[in-house]
Specification:
alpha/beta, 153 residues, single chain
């Protein structure tokens, strides 16, 4: 599976000023990119084996470092990059339920033969919220809002 993931083609698409999406063509989730005054905020971080490629794509639009990662969901195609970025001590934010699921072994068909092992501590979220989390940037306020039962396998 790693060789298939490593061959995923990705495109950096500008949505509007300071907002991009890294759109993969294959078995990976989209990654949102917001360039704030203080650094880059990633929304989901795909697979660890794609992390260097994500950094290369970011280097084409900014010289700012990744300062925060937001995990919108607990499945590996959204969060496996935590294994890479967590070692760089980048703060990772998620809703409490996602943190709990990343902390334990879980069945998630159709990925990885249906099993996602618990993430090591450095790859789990470092900040969680129940209903709402607010990031105050110099010029923007970013609200993360938990929508109950919005999406789950």
């Amino acid at each position: 599976m790693a060789s298939v993931i490593g061959e995923i083609k990705e495109e950096l698409v500008k949505v509007k000023a300071n907002l991009y999406v890294i759109q993969p063509y294959g078995l990976a989730g989209n990654t949102g990119v917001f360039i704030s005054d203080g650094g880059v905020i990633l929304i989901d971080d795909q697979w660890a084996m794609l992390a260097e490629r994500i950094k290369e794509l970011l280097a084409t639009i900014t010289d700012k470092e990744i300062k925060t990662i937001i995990n919108t969901y607990d499945h590996v195609d959204h969060t496996h990059g935590n294994l890479f970025f967590g070692k760089e001590n980048i703060p990772i934010i998620s809703q409490e339920n996602a943190f709990e699921r990343m902390s334990e072994r879980q069945v998630i068909l159709p990925f990885l033969n249906g099993v996602q092992e618990a993430y090591p501590k450095e790859a789990r979220t470092s900040m969680t919220f129940l209903r709402k989390f607010v990031l105050h940037e110099k010029k923007k306020t970013i609200e993360l809002i938990h929508l109950r039962n919005a999406y789950r396998w």
